[in-house]
Amino acid sequence: MVATRAYIFFGLNAVRILSIVSLILVFASSIFVMVTDIEAVNSFESAKQSGNVTAQDLVDCEYIESGAFFWAIINRLLIIFQVVILILSEIGWPSSFFDRFFPVLGSGFGLGALGIFQGLIGAAVLSQHVDDFTLVSAFFLFVLGCINMFIGLIFRESAKSRRSITSWREDAKNVLPTTNQPPVSHLNLNRSASSSSGQSFTSSTMNEEKSSDLGEFGAGRSSSRAGYGFGRQGEKAAGLKGFLISKPLETLPRYAARPTTAPSQSSRSPSPQPQFSSSGTAI
User: Fold this and answer.
1) For residue 26, what are the contacts with CB-CB under 8 A and spacing of at least 6?
2) Which stretch of DSSP H or E encloses residue 187?
3) 112-126 and 68-91 are packed helices; what angle lies between their axes, rounded to 10 degrees?
4) How far apart are CA 178 and CA 44, in angstroms?
5) What gap in Å lies between CA 192 and CA 75, rounded to an integer?
6) Which residues does 39 contact at the CB level (< 8 Å), separation at least 6?
7) Long-range contacts made by residues 66-71, C-beta under 8 angstroms, separation at least 24?
8) Has this prediction a pTM greater than 0.90?
9) pLDDT tens per residue, range 129-153
């Protein structure tokens, strides 16, 4: 279980690193294309002022004359802004800002929305006539967007929590117990095991005693040979068969201590004194 969780953690973070790299490449390529477009416009305006513009140049740079150049620059600026937002979302900073103003990019949502945004940016760049570096960067971003959408369908909102480093550390602390305090679960298991073993031992002992008593006094035998014990029923049954049960005489036990001192003189009864007559003879 821990190995599977570790594989998922490292796999999601590898996709995150590749996603950040692709966004950085698109950021750099957008700036490069924007600078190239500005230089092309400046060179066209300078050639136009000098009168060196041919008819073919006017056809090739028709978007400059129609004012489409302005919207091309706005497009590049919006792509750069979106790429910066997505990079911050992948880093996870500031998380409170995204949770409040961009919830789909916050911690409460998965990677599906992020993949959709990456796919839209990549398709928008690939639909234009640009250099090879920009095309490769946009295609790389589009592929990563598809992967993030697939991961979002699998893990849904738990994808970001599974790849979070802070949550990984917290889970590791919960898994590994500290040395100062033993895990409560082990104590409970030991107590429950000891109590259950004690109960089972007590129940088995009581069952053995009951079985021995039943076997001794005949209660466990068949109905035809049932015994009556030493109670009134047993005495009655013995009387019907002609047996008499006499009670034993109450005697002192052999180990009773004998008195060591003789009775005192005061406790003895006084003997009668002899009486004499006038002649001196005893009466």
Assistant:
1) 79, 83, 121, 122, 125, 137, 138, 141
2) helix 184-217
3) 150
4) 72
5) 68
6) none
7) 69/37, 69/41
8) no
9) 889 999 999 999 999 999 999 999 9
